[in-house]
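Structure tokens please, single chain.
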Amino acid sequence: MKGRPVGDVTAAVAGADPTPAVDPERFQGDTDPYPGHWLESPAPWPFVEAADPVVLAVATAGLALLPDVWARAVRGHDVERRPETEVAAELGVTVAQLRDLLNRGRAEVRERLSRALGDAEDPR
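Here you go.
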């Protein structure tokens, strides 16, 4: 579907759960001491090599499960290393909207990596 325009972020995320990129329950509420800060800091990730076959397999599988436009945004900018302006134009969105798509797509892939690597030991 290369080049299919997406009119706005609402259309871009159509068919996907329109929730924030990170579950709001993970952050302090308005009545907590530090509203908007993490309730509990995320656990540090173990040391991994980006070229590790497990990391590549999980990231590839994560990309395949994303809504099409999220995957196209992440693939175009983060994998193919194309400029934001070029990827945004291809998707028919603004650069600000592309950043939203990137944040959502990256968050999903990051969550899958976190689950997959959660039990791994740090070899350092």
